[in-house]
Amino acid sequence: MFLTRRKINDGSEYLGPFTSVARVRELLLFIKQHIQLRTCKLPLTQKNITAKKFRVCLEYHLGNCKGPCVGFQTEWEYREGLNRLKQVLKGKLGEVVQYYKEEMRRYAEQLEFEKAQITKKKLEHLEQYQAKSVVVSQQVSDVDVFSIYKAEDIAYVNFLMVRSGTIVQTHTLQLTPHLDETEAEVLSFAIARIRESFDSDATELIVPIELEYADARVQVTIPKLGDKKKLLELSQKNVLLFKDEVKRKKLLNIEEKTEDQLLDILEELQDALSLPELPLHIECFDNSNFQGSYPVSAMVCFKNGAPSKNDYRRFNVKTVQGINDFATMKEAVTRRYKRLSEEAAELPQLVIIDGGKGQLNAALEAIEELGLTGQMTLVGLAKNIEELFFAGDQQSIKLNWNSEGLKLVRRIRDEVHRFGITFHRQKRSKGTFKNELEDIAGIGKQTATALLKHFRSVNKIKQASLPELEAVIGKQKAQLVLAHYAPK
Q1: H helices then E strands: how many in the chain?
Q2: Neighbour count for residue 114 (Cβ, 10 Å)
Q3: What are phi and psi of 275, to 5 degrees?
Q4: Helices (DSSP H) in 179-324: which residue ranges?
Q5: Coil/strand/helix, residue 99
Q6: What is the pLDDT of residues 278-318, one digit of tens each?
Q7: Using one digit for the tens of pLDDT, what is the confidence trace for 53-77?
Q8: Has residue 234 got a pLDDT over 60?
Q9: What is the mean pLDDT of residues 452-479?
Q10: Positive or negative, the Cα torsion across 200, 206, 208, 213?
């Protein structure tokens, strides 16, 4: 027994497919612990076993194998283990549970209590594993659940495989139907294809619409109430989530574009913004702060329409106190392009400032002070509404919501958000270990900790009297704290 991604006609029996590798590995570990199967490749013919050509290995002594190579386990017993393995992989845990219950009872009747205890532990582990699965109903046994979402040129079909009341597999198939195909025809085709792929033997299908199914032995159900209706609703929710995820990836998936396609997108952006040059080099800035604390700026760089991560930059704000997005943006832009100018490095054709007109104007001030006016184009990107604008213009530029140019702008904006927020979280997490009390001259970490433990908050420390502070940290340090928070 082993995991494979390839299915070839070699006489082996294949169980699956499984949509989660993690789940397969969990199953394999469980099977190895509780169903003793050999891992060797010895030719175990009856003749070889009778002739005693083999000896038991370490796996036997570890309890992972019952020694069929020396006749300690019969072929019938070994096949029983294989059958239990298949039932576990197919999600039919109830039959395996029943087998172990009967085995435990049989050992107890024969007064083999140690063996009965070992089987009991296997049974407990199996029931614990079963409890971690998504149990949806004790009444619904073995069914296949299907739902469909069909647009004009694409369809998505979700599949839930339910065995013994537990969801053991889930899969969503994306199809391109013919123009004249009905929803029922598309669903019928998908059901046949999915059931064949997953080797499903369920005799009942739960579906949302009426359809004809070729196999008369299979019952088709359109539930109105109860657990079957809930299963169908879950499948319908899955298919919509899958559809939305595909749409989101299409909007952001620039990396799969060819170089020629990316150049076409850049030409589209150049025309939309009336840029003097093709924007082969684009940079985007964004600010991040938390209630005025830990202000940072981030810059991402795209070259030829793709991320150039070696050129990404993070800026710890040095000259700005409190919340001042305009000054923060000006500092970041100044530091970036002052450095490029000093190094005589290539300047971008397009700079996107993620923010309002205030941030854009602040960035332009930085460019003017550096003497770089006219050497690059700066545009602002309105928060949320995805509109671009130039400084001084009354009207913003609204790119077609489905255009490749806007998709690239979204990709750049989302990347600078991700990069900036990641940096900000790192800085903030470090900052949480140092509170504002440690900024008071003469007050160290231990004193600050003692104050917080006693007063529970900085606000209460500010309101405390001198005697109250002295009782915790002594007269000298109490005076330092009181002086620091005294009205200026």
Answers
A1: 16, 13
A2: 8
A3: -80, 140
A4: 183-197, 226-252, 259-273
A5: helix
A6: 999 999 999 876 545 567 789 999 999 889 999 999 988 77
A7: 998 888 888 777 888 998 888 888 8
A8: yes
A9: 85
A10: positive
